Amino acid sequence: MIYCRPKTKTYLALGLVVVVLISGLIYILNHFATQRSFGIAFYLIASVILTLAILLLLVKMMASYKFISIGKEKINIRLPLRGKSVSYGLEQVMLWDEEKVISNKREFKQLTLVFEDKDSFTLSNHEHSNYDEFTNYLWKKIPKKHVNKLKKIKILQQKPQ
Transmembrane residues, as ranges (predicted)? Predict the structure, then answer.
């Protein structure tokens, strides 16, 4: 079995950013309550921006927090924050695709799996461990369900507008 878990480093870094943003929001609100040396528009805009950034990061962290294992012709997905655990057979995979982007001389890979029940999930090499082993297993077991560029064009053309 290949186990893909969220990387601790990624969540610690994002958690640190959230803590910094929360402390900035607390500072802005405390400054407004005690000194009020800036205009009210500054406090409103700064509070809204910081709150939105905090919420977006927290939602991102919660949405990508999942444990995935693959092996013995099965894919097991556990979403602890939702209290949900799902198991799929490899024959239930409708298609899978891997996207690669090079940014700042680092390669970012994201794998998307779509199942017959129209459920899907994504996995990335920066957020999850054992990403390469997971994709190698898919290439070995179900290479025909990989979406290449020609299949992508056909799928996009079949979509009703």
Answer: 12-32, 38-59
